[in-house]
């Protein structure tokens, strides 16, 4: 290099430095301006997205709040398929009153419109077959197949105009398979679109308020930006999403790079677009930034030219410009990080994918753990969700959906699955082929868990609501109108579901007392709830019952409501009333009775007492309350009580005891009854039985004296009878001898007198024998002589003996007996004496009649398992004078006949039947009688065929 060239370079150096420095400044300013433009663009789109999200939420709430009211109608029709027009009108009136913008409610049974509300103005729609109408055919078919609510529209109406039409299929309720019942038809709600758009603030409601004269327009507070005016458009008619027609706003809006959001419908979706009014604005800072950049470039160049030896100043300017650029980039990074979303960017041609650190950390991985292979993503998707996610991605890449939005489960590093919401959009070339696919992933696990918890909670509430034994009702807070009631409410009130829904308690005349209603309302308004308040309510039938009422205020679908629970306690109150009266009666009886009541525990400690005068007690209450029995009573009495208490504890049954105490120098007798009261308590009832015991003692002494006198009488009769029989036998014997001598010496005139002496002697001897037998029986000296004998011979002997007496009164004797009676083991004399007595009585009290002796053998089926003895029965019947019931009660008493007149007419002592009854009892049998005055009598003797001594005698 020569000197000239060095000089030229030194001359040009300031210019070159100035130009270079100015160029660097211009480049920095250009980069900063570009970053600022991008930031402003992103800010504008974020503002528009925020406003669009708000409008979408309001639109979904406005639409869903009106679709919600169909649930009750669907539930009612599924349980009441024969709904009448009147019932439908009452339900529809309630629905229309709760929400505005509902033009019409329809029921289409078998897809034919059969019910309308309101009817006026919509008459042309009645009877329309939805499957035959070209506008509604496809939508109705889709509704039936999907079994969900389908929102169509705006749709032209038959009666004119356009509206949204929500159709919900109705399937009849089936307890065996809920939700799978037969298809009934549709319920449709016609909704005014303008009302929906107005509620969503998509249409202006009020005009702007003019600023008063002399006052400056209000400005936004410092630090806040005024929202950008936005215009909106909606497409997706009939729920077709991005493929549907535009039905709100300017259709061209979708071609102006809009912000897009989907509006969820029960089946399908709409797509909303938003663009700033007048288009996307150009960044305002660009002009002054360029001016500033030019000025800086000029200044920098001039400064460099002047201070060419100060390069650090030029470097500082460059660093400032670079710092501004870095800050702009950091804003984007902060915005992404603040959204808490993971970013993914998929190069479809290279099949490489980028995962942001947030994407990786969301599934528990470090930034270096995941590669760029798409399998790193798809291998972690839950197997049940993988096919659906791949299908959604494929559909978007093929252009069948405007963007990707789906939910799925992804495997976390700890082995659990997280729910993720993935959104994305493909970048396409000029031919429409995708070459890049990017989007975000948001962790929605908490939201899904909350949704699942809400679903489980709602399911539990629904089951509890239906199965509750208490009446549950949900009413609006403002007017108290019933929204829903359970089956127990209908059962308790007696109303039908259609009669309750839409009405309030005043219209149903439920409250009996206005004061109770006012008290419940005041408590609800004061504390937000009503707890355990007793009320009186009236059923539909007019019956008044008592309930335990609870209520609490809640909010359902944004509407203040009240949930109330009523438990029918009528029976309990009636029981309490009866218990009160019973207790009062028992207390009154308790006070009126002369008994003493003591309450003891199982350790024999006296806990309490009730009684009359303190003077009746063995000791003063202060001396025995809290003490044990053995500390109060004498040892003999306390031992009696101790044994009784032990018996009560073992058997848990009533125990009696009697004891004596000396009170006030006088012996008193008491009866104690011990009963178990509770698990560890015993009640003792004590009664003074001194008078009764004294009476028993006197009665016992009298009994002993009577028995002694009776025994002395029996001994006297036995001795007298024995002494009388000896001379009577002599009189009878000598009269027979004299009768024979009179016949021998030929003095027949003496024979009748001798026969009378002989008959009188025998009769007197018979009476003495009867008295002797009775005295032996009463004295216990009558013996039984057992032997085996033929029953037929006894019957024959009795018939032969009684035959003269039967013929004397012109009677006829008939014997009915089996041919083979066999041998009987008993006292033959007593059996024969009983038969003769019955037959002689029958012959004596019957004239020109029939006397029947019936004999039969009876097996004993009462006393198994031992071989039962057979019984023999003798039945003597006559057609004589008969007896009255009073006479039958006396005939078995000694020295008694049925009527005193019979003694005079027929004679006798009245001892025969008494002796016969005693003989039958001694032989283990019995005798009974049946008779009717003027129709004869029947005596029945039942004796054991084989006599057996009683077990107590055999011992």
TrEMBL record:
InterPro entries: CHASE_dom (IPR006189), HATPase_C_sf (IPR036890), HATPase_dom (IPR003594), His_kinase_dom (IPR005467), HisK_dim/P_dom (IPR003661), HisK_dim/P_sf (IPR036097), PAC (IPR001610), PAS (IPR000014). It is an enzyme of class 2 (transferase). Keywords: Kinase, Membrane, Phosphoprotein, Transferase, Transmembrane, Transmembrane helix, Two-component regulatory system. It comes from the Bacteria. It catalyses: ATP + protein L-histidine = ADP + protein N-phospho-L-histidine. The chain crosses the membrane at residues 12-33, 288-308. Residues 112-273 form the CHASE domain. Residues 328-400, 457-504 form the PAS domain. Pfam families: CHASE (PF03924), HATPase_c (PF02518), HisKA (PF00512), PAS_3 (PF08447), PAS_4 (PF08448), PAS_9 (PF13426). Residues 404-456 form the PAC domain. Coiled coil: none annotated. Residues 719-947 form the Histidine kinase domain. Its EC number is 2.7.13.3. PANTHER family: OSMOSENSING HISTIDINE PROTEIN KINASE SLN1, TWO-COMPONENT HISTIDINE PROTEIN KINASE. This is histidine kinase. It comes from Laspinema olomoucense D3b.
């Amino acid at each position: 290099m020569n000197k000239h060239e060095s000089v030229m370079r030194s001359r040009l150096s300031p210019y070159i430095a100035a130009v270079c420095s100015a160029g660097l400044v211009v480049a920095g300013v250009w980069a900063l301006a570009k970053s600022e433009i991008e930031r402003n663009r992103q800010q504008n789109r974020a503002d528009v997205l925020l406003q669009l999200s708000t409008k979408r939420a309001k639109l979904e709430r406005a639409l869903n709040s009106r679709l919600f009211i169909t649930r009750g109608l669907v539930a009612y029709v599924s349980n009441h398929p024969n709904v009448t027009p009147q019932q439908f009108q009452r339900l529809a009136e309630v629905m229309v009153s709760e929400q505005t913008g509902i033009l019409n409610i329809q029921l289409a049974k078998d897809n034919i419109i059969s019910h309308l509300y309101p009817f006026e103005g919509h008459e042309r729609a009645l009877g329309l077959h939805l499957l035959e109408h070209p506008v509604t055919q496809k939508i109705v078919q889709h509704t039936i197949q999907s079994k969900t609510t389908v929102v169509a529209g705006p749709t032209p109406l038959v009666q004119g105009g356009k509206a949204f039409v929500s159709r919900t299929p109705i399937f009849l309720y089936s307890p065996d398979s809920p939700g799978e019942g037969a298809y009934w038809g549709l319920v449709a709600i016609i909704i005014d679109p303008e009302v929906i758009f107005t509620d969503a603030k998509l249409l202006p409601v009020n005009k702007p308020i003019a600023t008063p004269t002399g006052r400056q327009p209000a400005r936004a507070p410092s630090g806040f930006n005024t929202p950008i005016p936005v215009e909106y458009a909606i497409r997706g008619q009939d729920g077709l999403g991005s493929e549907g027609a535009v039905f709100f706003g300017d259709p061209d809006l979708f071609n102006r790079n809009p912000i897009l959001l989907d509006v969820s419908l029960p089946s399908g979706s709409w797509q909303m677009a938003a663009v700033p009014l007048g288009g996307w604005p150009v960044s305002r800072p660009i002009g002054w930034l360029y001016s500033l950049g030019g000025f800086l470039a000029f200044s920098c160049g001039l400064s460099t030219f002047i201070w060419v030896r100060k390069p650090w100043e030029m470097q500082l300017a460059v660093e400032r410009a670079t710092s501004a650029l870095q800050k702009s980039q950091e804003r984007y990074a902060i915005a992404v990080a603040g959204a808490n979303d993971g970013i993914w960017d998929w190069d479809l041609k290279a099949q490489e994918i980028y995962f942001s650190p947030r994407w990786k950390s969301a599934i528990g991985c470090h930034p270096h753990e995941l590669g760029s292979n798409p399998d790193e993503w798809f291998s972690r998707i839950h197997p049940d969700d993988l096919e659906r996610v791949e299908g959604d991605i494929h559909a978007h890449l093929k252009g069948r959906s405007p963007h990707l939005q789906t939910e799925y489960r992804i495997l976390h590093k700890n082995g659990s699955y997280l729910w993720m919401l993935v959104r994305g959009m493909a970048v396409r070339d000029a031919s429409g082929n995708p070459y890049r696919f990017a989007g975000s992933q948001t962790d929605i696990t908490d939201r899904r868990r909350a949704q699942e918890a809400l679903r489980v909670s709602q399911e539990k509430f629904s089951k509890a609501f239906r199965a509750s034994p208490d009446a549950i009702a949900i009413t609006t807070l403002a007017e108290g109108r019933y929204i829903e009631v359970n089956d127990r409410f209908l059962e308790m009130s007696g109303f039908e579901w259609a009669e309750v829904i839409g009405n309030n308690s005043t219209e149903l005349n439920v409250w009996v007392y206005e004061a109770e209603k006012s008290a419940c309302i005041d408590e609800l308004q004061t504390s937000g709830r009503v707890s355990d308040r007793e009320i009186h309510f009236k059923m539909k039938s007019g019956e008044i019952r008592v309930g335990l009422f609870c209520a609490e205020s809640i909010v359902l679908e944004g509407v203040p409501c009240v949930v109330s629970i009523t438990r029918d306690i009528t029976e309990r109150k009636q029981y309490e009333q009866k218990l009160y009266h019973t207790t009062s009666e028992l207390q009154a009886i308790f006070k009126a009775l002369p008994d003493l009541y003591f309450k003891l525990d199982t350790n024999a400690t006296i806990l309490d007492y009730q009684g009359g005068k303190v003077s009746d007690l063995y000791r003063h209450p202060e001396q025995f309350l809290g003490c044990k029995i053995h500390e109060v009573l004498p040892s003999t009495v306390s031992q009696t009580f101790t044994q009784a208490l032990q018996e009560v504890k073992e058997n848990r049954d009533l125990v009696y005891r009697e004891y004596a105490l000396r009170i006030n120098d006088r012996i008193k007798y008491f009866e104690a009854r011990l009963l178990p009261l509770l698990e560890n308590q015993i009640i003792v009832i004590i009664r003074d039985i001194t008078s009764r015991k004294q009476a028993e003692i006197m009665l016992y002494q009298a009994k002993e004296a009577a028995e002694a006198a009776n025994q002395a009488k029996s001994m006297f009769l036995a001795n007298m009878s024995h002494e009388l029989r000896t001379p009577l036998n002599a009189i009878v014997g000598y009269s027979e001898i004299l009768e024979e001598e009179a016949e021998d010496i030929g003095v027949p005139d003496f024979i009748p007198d001798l026969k009378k002496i002989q008959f009188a002697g025998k009769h007197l001897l018979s009476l003495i024998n009867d008295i002797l037998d009775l005295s032996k029986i009463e004295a216990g000296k009558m013996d039984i002589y057992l032997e085996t004998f033929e029953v037929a011979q006894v019957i024959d002997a009795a018939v032969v003996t009684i035959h003269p007496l039967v013929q004397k009164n012109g009677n006829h004797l008939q014997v009915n007996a089996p041919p083979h009676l066999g041998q009987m083991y008993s006292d033959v004399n007593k059996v024969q004496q009983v038969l003769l007595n019955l037959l002689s009585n029958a012959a004596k009290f019957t004239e020109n009649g029939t006397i029947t002796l019936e004999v039969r053998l009876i097996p004993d089926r009462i006393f198994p398992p031992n071989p039962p003895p057979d019984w023999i029965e003798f039945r003597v019947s006559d057609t004589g004078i008969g007896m009255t019931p009073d006479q039958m009660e006396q005939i078995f008493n000694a020295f008694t006949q049925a009527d005193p007149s019979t003694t005079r007419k027929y004679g006798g002592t009245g001892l025969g039947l008494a002796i016969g009854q005693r003989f039958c009892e001694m032989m283990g049998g019995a005798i009974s009688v049946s008779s009717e005055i003027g129709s004869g009598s029947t005596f029945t003797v039942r004796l054991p065929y084989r006599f057996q001594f009683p077990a107590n005698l055999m011992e």
